[in-house]
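As the work plan foresaw, the team has encoded backbone shapes as discrete tokens. One protein thus recorded appears below exactly as we store it.

:::
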Amino acid sequence: MKYNFDEVVDRKNSNSIKWMAPRLEYGDEDILPMWIADMDFKVADEILNGLKGPIEHGILGYDINPDSFYEIIINWIYDKHNWKIEKEWITFVPGVVPAIGIAVRAFTKENDGALLQSPVYHPFYKILKNNNRVAVENHLVFDGNRYILDFEDMRSKISEKTKLAISCSPHNPVGRVWTKEELEEYGRICLENNMIILSDEIHSDITYKNHKHIPIASISRELELNTITFMAPSKTFNIAGLFASIAIIPNEDMRKAYNQAIDVLGLHHANTLSVAGFEAAYKYGKEWLAEVLEYIEGNADFATEYIKKNIPEVVAYKPDGTYLMWLDFNKLGKTSDEVNELLIKKGKVLLNNGKDFGTGGDGYFRFNIACPRIVLEDALKRIAVAVQE
């Protein structure tokens, strides 16, 4: 490999949320953080070099997004996902979570509902609650091998007040990469019920062998005009701190309404370094991405086998994509909070508590495996200690 993903980078004193949380919340620097979704891998030199340009120029003023910014995005999405988009469809947003919040405000009113596939990424719930909207939970079903969509349950939950469907693919936290057939049925239900699809595809570039991400908007023109797709290089290239994302909105009327909501909040300017990092990642990051995907999938295989062999009380399965694993601790017969206390106090390891991900999350934990193998093995040993206690 050209890049060294075995290198352990000390982040304890870097203001990293991931690494500062154990100290701030629990007063314990010995807790190993395996929670928030960023990687413990050094960013590719090609991206770091791209960030040097604006800094060496010496003036970091207000910028416009150059044509190259849009060209690189268009080429990346076509090459990776076989979806041909247009420059006019692209709106810069400072992160996928605020971008979804903007859409919720633009296309719903108070007490309207948004469909979610629970357990799901917890900020979705927070966005809806803070804007006085209702989370309509369509529960995922575990079939003994993987999670699947329950379309019958989905149809039964939708009402006239359900205006949006917030989709997550690859799904966070369960790691499913939805198939074309699943997306087609999901899209059909949304169209039948006049629900706009907000598709969070921030993990779309992180898929494992034999799994391919399909943007739901790429399936048909009808779905393209009914979907706002959110993408970013942040998870892909470990540059979340640059707060650079895009909303892709082919429907002109929806795009006008969305951009108006952005202007109301004064969020229409991009950060100079964000654009530079965005461009460098998509222009020069392909080799780094290929290698990091191979390494992370190796981590997923290692963790799955380790848990099966050494921690049989915990159920784990290899995800289709993302660098997150969804671990089932329910065999212990304890609540999520009780398991979390064991993990923190006995194992000295911090995972995301599954109860925060909505219905179906209690007794589960989200485990971030994007780290050097030696750190992953340490985390697994700590989990084993906690479970034995």
Observations:
- The mean pLDDT is 97.
- The longest strand covers residues 162-168.
- The two ends are 39 Å apart (CA to CA).
